Automatic annotation (TrEMBL):
It comes from Paraburkholderia pallida. Its EC number is 1.1.99.14. The keyword Repressor does not apply. NCBIfam families: PRK11274.1. Residues 1-13 have a biased composition (Polar residues). This is Glycolate oxidase subunit GlcF. Residues 1-25, 452-486 are annotated as: Disordered. Transmembrane segments: none annotated. SUPFAM superfamilies: 4Fe-4S ferredoxins (SSF54862). Residues 36-68, 89-119 form the 4Fe-4S ferredoxin-type domain.
């Protein structure tokens, strides 16, 4: 028997009432601890001193006021589940399913509990050992199939909009799916998402590969277009690599490693082919922070696969959010058009996957200010909006309450436009905040010479025709082909 005790190390600088710090024990057998994954989980659990500081930052605890829906309570549930092994009980699965994986707890924890790795390991354990009811299992597999495939997702979007007037006839998750559909019709696919190269404007300062993604390019294709224009304008050559697609995050979040890992490997292969094609790449640019967090974790996800571990770690090291990269190379102040931005107040919503998952906090704010916008944040900026991948489809009640609270918080800021860096948050909040909701990069592109973001003017951007004409010649050609500036 292996037993461990940890002492309370609550720091005096943390405000709040005195907290109880009961002994934290783990009791995994030596056989279980021989597994590197369980040994890692054991170490993480032992780091928790049960101080409870994370409770006030946990969205599900704030909504439900149930210890089992708090990080501290879930750590105990996960410890019990992993110690016991085998099939977890229904109550444990219910409370772990309710976790958003927002990582606010990890960000605030004074003891350094690596919650993300623990919940990831636990979700894989549940997926492997827990027989979910048939309807639930079918819905999860449907979503895992539908979401990463832009073609299927587009068809589902069109069918869903047609079915929305009959939403009351549909059961739980299906109704949540209809409610989560964007207010606008499916957009035309953008020509920029095909494999191709976009040359730098002026002397080339960097060469990057851009993840064109899956859901985002169906819902808001203008985001990739704005990203490419912004980068080109700053002297960056942008490659959309042949063979890259969905990052695998949504399946991974559901503990479905078998579905997620082939997508990860396809991306690794595609990007490293570019990196090794005689003209290396300086970064892999990602403009959806949920995907960025996933790609930065490829090294961890594939660590046990000797054929992929090293390459996966290489890709993770190259991955950068577009605002992270733009901060590194610097927004060119000479390009800024103050007449577009000076009088505009922006409320910036920080996605959890950006601020807690990747620790990117000040970069989007600084870039927007440098571009001339007046920027404010909502009062509860650390709190999740309830989107969390497909959480809003699987847990619509909690997600709906979090959406309501976040929308109120954003509306409390007197701003003309809301911006964020994650398509999930945009889709979750767009119909609730009462002002246009755009991606940060769309504002940066507009501020430095690009077209006005579609949400600001509610029409198809002028220039799209030229854009499609510009890329049409080489759009279906090899990656080595090159397109004019868009
Ligand atoms: S996870 Fe961190 S903040 Fe939460 S109870 Fe444990 S030690 Fe405290
Ligand atoms: S990841 Fe988010 S929802 Fe889950 S326990 Fe931590 S703070 Fe709560």
């Amino acid at each position: 028997m292996h037993s461990t005790r940890t002492a309370c190390s609550t720091q005096a600088s943390w405000a709040g009432p005195p907290v109880e710090t009961p002994e934290v024990r783990t009791d995994l057998s030596p056989e279980a601890l021989a597994s590197p994954d369980l040994a890692l989980s054991n170490d993480i659990i032992r780091t928790c001193v049960h101080c409870g500081i994370c409770l006030s930052h946990c969205p599900t605890y704030q909504v439900r006021h149930d210890e089992n829906d708090s990080p501290r309570g879930r750590i105990v549930l996960m410890r019990n589940m992993l110690e016991k092994g085998g099939t977890p009980d229904e109550m444990t699965v219910k409370h772990l399913d309710r976790c958003l994986s927002c990582l606010a707890c990890e960000a605030i924890c004074p003891s350094g509990v690596k919650y993300s790795k623990l919940i990831g390991q636990s979700r894989e354990h549940i997926e492997a050992h827990y027989p979910r009811p048939a309807v639930q299992r079918g819905m999860r597999h449907l979503l895992a199939k539908l979401v990463p495939s832009p073609g299927l997702f587009r068809m589902a979007l069109i069918a869903g909009r047609a079915a929305r007037p009959m939403r009351s006839l549909f059961p739980g998750t299906l109704r949540a799916m209809l409610d989560a559909l964007p207010g606008h019709a499916a957009r035309r696919p953008s020509a920029v998402d095909r494999p191709q190269v976009f040359p730098a404007q002026g002397p080339r300062r960097a060469r990057v590969s851009m993840l064109s993604g899956c859901v985002q390019k169906v819902l808001e294709p203008g985001i990739n277009e704005a990203t490419i224009r912004l980068l080109q304008r700053h002297g960056v050559e942008v490659v959309v690599a042949r063979g890259a697609g969905c990052c695998g995050a949504l399946s991974d979040h559901m503990g479905m490693a078998e579905q997620a890992q082939p997508m990860m490997k396809a991306n690794i292969e595609a990007w490293l082919r570019e990196a090794g094609a005689g003209d290396s790449i300086d970064a892999i640019i990602i403009n959806a922070s949920g995907c960025g967090t996933a790609v930065k974790a490829y090294g961890h996800a594939l660590r046990h696969d000797p054929a992929w571990a090293e390459r996966a770690a290489r890709v993770s090291a190259l991955a950068k959010d577009v605002t992270e990269f733009m901060t590194d190379i610097g927004l060119n102040a000479d390009l800024v058009r103050p007449e577009r931005t000076a009088s505009m107040r922006v409320v910036y919503h920080a996605p959890c996957s950006m601020q807690h998952g990747q620790h990117i906090v000040h970069q989007p704010l600084d870039l927007l200010r440098k571009a001339g916008f007046e920027v404010a944040e909502p009062p509860d900026s650390f709190m999740c909006c309830g989107s969390a991948g497909i959480y809003n489809l699987l847990q619509p009640e909690i997600a709906g309450e979090l959406k309501r609270r976040k929308a109120w918080s954003i509306r409390s800021v007197d701003a003309a436009v809301a911006a964020t860096g994650n398509i999930g948050c945009m889709t979750q909040l767009a119909d609730a905040v009462g002002i246009p909701f755009v991606h940060t990069v769309e504002l940066l592109d507009w501020a430095t010479g690009g077209p006005e973001p579609q949400a600001l003017r509610g029409s198809k951007p002028p220039g799209s025709a030229q854009l499609e004409k510009a890329v049409s010649e080489s759009a279906s050609g090899p990656v080595a082909g090159s397109n004019p500036t868009i």
